[in-house]
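If it is no trouble, can you show me the amino acids of a protein and the tokens describing how it folds?
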Amino acid sequence: MATAPIRILRRPAVTELTGLSRSSLYALAKTGDFPAPIHLTERTVGWIEADVVNWLEERARQPYQPQPRLSPQSIAKSIQTRRTRAVEKTKQAQRG
């Protein structure tokens, strides 16, 4: 029985197939939550199509679990932190 040839997907095809952004693909691969790309040349990588399809099928079998919402307090703290950093950055720029 002949085995099917291995098909390699380049990053735009993987993004199209999964709906994940470039940075999400690499972040998930780094943590082991997505198949790692393989090096085709020194500067070229691709993903084995069967690995990506298997990952998608596995995800499809998992029940949806919504992420918890942020509390109003944590949102306010985040906004305040960003404002504080922006003010500090402006002061540093003015000092030159």
In short: The chain has a mean pLDDT of 91. Strands lie at 8-9, 38-39, 45-48. The radius of gyration is 21 Å. The helical segments are 11-18, 22-31, 49-61, 72-95.
